[in-house]
């Protein structure tokens, strides 16, 4: 049996909000496997659902840039939030985001690209900034979206300056309709993605491993009720339906109106745009992905911003 340390118990408790003794028991029963222990606690109804058992702690900023029919998002990390408030650092993130338009979502390609007006690569410029500011920094990741017809909409939450903040979102919309109306709706969709954090566009786009894990947890929860297997299957199917509604973008309730699904909102928006709209992809970067802000009703905060409140 693996030795269960106090640090392991603390990590599990931080990730799940479960009691200390429950965390210790979960780790003991799962041989010290943190992720399995999260599922154990969930199955017992002792933990909140978590997409990841591990948390990534980092400071820095997320930058978003849209040029023509392509959008890019980057995450640049620093050691402290103090540096993230530095104007030089903010400007660097904005310029790296602009350079990322040509990187096609490849972070190594981005690092090797010329930094605008510096006569050196992005990676070399970041190294120079480390020497200037005196704190470690890193271009952690990037992603991009493009469309043939239509546009890539963007949204940045908690903006430190235009296009720079703690959460950056891109949504690709294919349409031949009115550009201004499409842009307005696209921004609402991007704000929705920031608030609702969908895992995939459609059920078929979900990671099969995630689906299997959810089904296994729901099945274990259902068996705790002692009901027959045929009833358990129905219970699991019902809970999976709810999981899809909460996790799949097109099935989520649109935070801007709080009534329609996103799919229905798209159909409604087509009347104003004057042409069909297809969401072909989305990207959501949150600084230090996996860290949650305690006590914040984030969906309500973004919905309020979307309605101009």
Short description:
45% of the residues lie in helices and 18% in strands. The chain has helices spanning 6-16, 20-29, 34-43, 81-84, 87-99, 107-112, 122-133, 179-196, 208-223, 229-247, 262-273, 298-306; strands at residues 59-67, 70-78, 137-146, 150-157, 164-165, 167-174, 278-286.
CATH homologous superfamily name of the largest domain?
Elongation factor Ts, dimerisation domain
Poorly predicted regions: 49-57, 291-296
Q: Mind describing the biggest β-sheet?
A: 4 strands, antiparallel
The structure class reads alpha+beta
Shape annotation: flat
> Strand order across the biggest sheet?
3-2-1-5
User: Percentage of helical residues?
Assistant: 40-55%
Q: What is the β-strand count?
A: 7
What is the C-alpha radius of gyration, as a whole number of Å?
Answer: 22 Å
Give the CATH topology of the largest domain. Answer: Tetrahydropterin Synthase, Chain A
Per DSSP, the total helix count is: 12
> What is the overall pLDDT average?
86
The CATH class designation of the largest domain is Alpha Beta
CATH architecture classification name of the largest domain? 2-Layer Sandwich
Distance between the termini: 55 Å
Beta-strand content bin: 15-25%
> What count of domains describes the coordinates?
2
What order do the helices and strands follow?
Answer: HHHEEHHHHEEEEHHHHEH
């Amino acid at each position: 049996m693996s030795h269960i340390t106090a640090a392991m118990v603390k990590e599990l408790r931080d990730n799940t909000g479960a009691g200390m003794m429950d965390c210790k028991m979960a780790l003991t029963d799962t041989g010290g496997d943190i992720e399995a222990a999260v599922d154990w606690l969930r199955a017992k109804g002792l933990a909140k659902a978590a997409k990841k058992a591990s948390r990534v702690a980092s400071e820095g900023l997320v930058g978003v840039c849209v040029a023509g029919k392509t959008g890019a998002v980057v995450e640049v990390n620093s050691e402290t939030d103090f540096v993230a408030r530095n104007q030089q650092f903010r400007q660097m993130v904005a310029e790296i985001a602009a350079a990322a338009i040509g990187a096609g979502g490849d972070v190594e390609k981005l690092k090797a690209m010329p930094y605008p007006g510096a006569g050196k690569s992005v990676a070399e410029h970041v190294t120079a900034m480390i020497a200037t500011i005196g704190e470690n920094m890193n271009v952690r990741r990037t992603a991009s979206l493009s469309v043939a017809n239509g546009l890539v909409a963007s949204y940045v939450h908690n903006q430190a300056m235009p296009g720079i903040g703690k959460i950056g979102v891109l949504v690709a919309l294919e349409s031949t309709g009115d550009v201004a109306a499409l842009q307005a709706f696209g921004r609402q969709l991007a704000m929705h993605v920031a608030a609702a954090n969908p895992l995939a566009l459609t059920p078929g786009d979900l990671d099969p491993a995630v689906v299997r894990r959810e089904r296994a947890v729901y099945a274990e929860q259902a068996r705790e009720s002692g009901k027959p297997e045929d009833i358990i299957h129905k219970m699991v199917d019902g809970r999976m339906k709810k999981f899809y509604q909460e996790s799949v973008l097109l099935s989520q309730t649109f935070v801007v109106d709080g009534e329609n699904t996103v799919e229905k909102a798209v159909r409604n928006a087509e009347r104003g745009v004057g042409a069909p709209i297809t969401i072909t992809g989305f990207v959501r970067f949150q600084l230090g992905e996996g860290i949650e802000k305690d006590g914040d009703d984030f969906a309500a905060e973004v919905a309020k911003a979307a309605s101009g409140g």
